[in-house]
Specification:
This is Circularly permuted type 2 ATP-grasp protein. By secondary structure, the protein is α+β, with helices and mostly antiparallel strands. About 30% of the residues lie in helices and about 20% in strands. The protein folds into three domains: about 280 residues, no CATH class; about 110 residues, 3-Layer(aba) Sandwich (Rossmann fold); about 60 residues, Dna Ligase, domain 1, CATH 3.30.1490. It is built from 14 helices and 24 strands. β9 and β10 form a beta hairpin.
């Protein structure tokens, strides 16, 4: 494939400098690309698409008029990260997760950070994700955020910024694992030649982390799913299978004497640790949403009694709020007495009158986000929107300023991506996965999400984005 016409002027490209020179960590792959005919690349891409569908690597899109199931399109050109860059990311992610865990423990117990005025008290107490039943709780081993999927972007200067913290039920790790297997088949020798760190042991690491939450020698672990119609059901079943544990729904579980049991063909078996993939408020209809048909009546009391461990812990979502995100640098300084290794994207809180006015005056240049929305919804990208949409969001902000934040429009870094006719640059973000067990462990890989539409900054799968395999190098 001829890369002579590849252009991404004015942006930070992961593979090429502004002068068109291939970066050192991509040079082995560049040689492979140059000697591979365009027709062969298209065949490899077609095979990758077919493999995804045959493996069941799909997700549900409920408002998609072309059918529910779609593959998360895997572009066969990887994103490659050198070791020096990864080590900085790793240190910053460990620092961030450590501080956020301190924060969650504090706000459900002493609330020192609120009393000291570092984080506004009403920001927490008025959050729909602050769960009053969790007040006074300390989860097993003092760990709240067992699995985190932090979203990062890289700007024009090549600096990483944290875009958001996903502390509730971060998804996508199964696509990271299966994508690696597909890319290995497409380019069987190149990973070894390039020196790529493996990610295949993630299920083992995940299981060890979950088992660590119990004091039993051989704890019984299960994955709790909302069921087959959930958008991430493929991932739930995949992870349960890879860990060799049971995949259960709320109907499979029952609480007796403050202990949780699952129904088996041999009768009831006590379960000790649950990796839950349902939202907090659906977890226990006795405590949270009484209309929930997904949860398990009585499971929260069993949790409080110490007879079941839940990952992530109920209540963790309060630190996943986009307004709380703006205070994470202060949270790091408060609990760890350290400067943040990874910076936030500059953020304007519409709850503050002066920042709100700035947002209203400059809405055409900013990205507006609902504090509790996800998946690319509840968002306005000012430069890509119409004056009518600007006015609509101004009214929304004025009607409920606490519900909105704003950020400058950053030009996400790009990676060469295979299109119908050639290779073009497309914007990407990065979601590494962090496990918090006996220690904080960052998996040496990530889900790279890519905006498949030319010029688009929206990488979410539900909004038409795709993915790339992410290679972290030994050197």
């Amino acid at each position: 494939m001829d890369l002579a016409n590849y252009q991404c002027s004015g942006l930070f490209d992961e593979m090429f400098t502004q002068n068109g020179e291939c970066r050192a960590h991509y040079q082995v792959f560049e040689k492979l690309l140059k000697k591979t005919a365009p027709r062969k690349l298209k065949q490899l891409q077609f095979s990758a698409n077919k493999t995804q569908m045959s493996m069941g690597m799909t997700f549900n899109v409920y408002d998609n008029d072309q059918g529910l199931e779609k593959i998360l399109h895997l572009d066969i050109i990887p994103r490659i990260i050198p070791k020096s860059e990864w080590l900085q990311l790793e240190a910053g992610l460990k620092q961030r997760v450590n501080a956020l865990n301190h924060f969650i423990q504090d706000i459900y117990n002493e609330q020192a950070i609120l009393k000291d005025g570092i984080v506004p008290e009403d920001l927490i107490t008025n959050s729909k994700d602050f769960l009053a039943p969790c007040i006074g709780l300390t989860p097993p081993k003092g760990i709240w955020c067992h699995i985190t999927g932090t979203d990062l972007i890289k700007d024009k200067s090549g600096e990483y910024f944290v875009l958001e913290d996903n502390l509730r039920c971060p998804s996508g790790v199964s696509y990271m694992l299966e994508s690696r297997e597909i890319i290995k088949r497409a380019f069987p020798d190149i990973l070894d030649k390039t020196g790529v760190m493996p990610v295949s042991n993630y299920p083992v690491r995940l299981l060890q982390m979950l088992q660590n939450l119990s004091n039993k020698e051989k704890p019984v672990v299960g994955v709790l799913t909302p069921g087959i119609y959930n958008s991430a059901y493929y991932e739930h079943s995949y992870l349960a299978l890879q860990m060799g544990v049971e995949l259960v729904t709320g109907e499979d579980l029952v609480v007796q004497n403050n202990k949780v049991y699952m129904q088996t063909t041999h009768g009831y078996q006590q379960i000790d640790v649950i990796y839950r993939r349902i939202d907090d408020t659906f977890l226990d209809p006795n405590i949270f949403n009484p209309n929930s048909l997904l949860g398990v009546p009585g499971i929260f009391e069993a949790y409080k009694a110490g007879n079941i461990a839940l990952a992530n812990a109920p209540g963790t979502g309060v630190a996943d709020d986009k307004a709380v995100y703006a205070y994470v640098p202060d949270i790091i300084k408060y609990y760890l007495n350290q400067e943040p290794i990874l910076n936030n994207v500059p953020t304007y809180l519409c709850r503050r009158p002066d920042e709100r006015q700035y947002v209203l005056d400059n809405i055409a240049e900013l990205v507006i986000k609902e504090t509790n929305a996800a998946g690319g919804y509840g968002m306005l990208i000012g430069p890509k929107s119409t004056p009518e949409e600007h006015e609509k969001f101004k009214k929304l902000i004025l009607s409920n300023p606490n519900n909105y934040i704003a950020q400058p429009t950053l030009s996400l870094s790009t990676v060469p991506t295979l299109t119908e006719n050639t290779i073009e640059c497309r914007h990407v973000d990065l979601r590494p996965y962090i496990l918090y067990g006996e220690e904080i462990d960052v998996v040496p890989g990530a889900l790279t999400r890519v905006a498949l539409k030319k010029g688009s900054l929206v990488v979410n799968s539900s909004q038409g984005g795709g993915s790339k395999d992410t290679w972290v190098l030994y050197k």
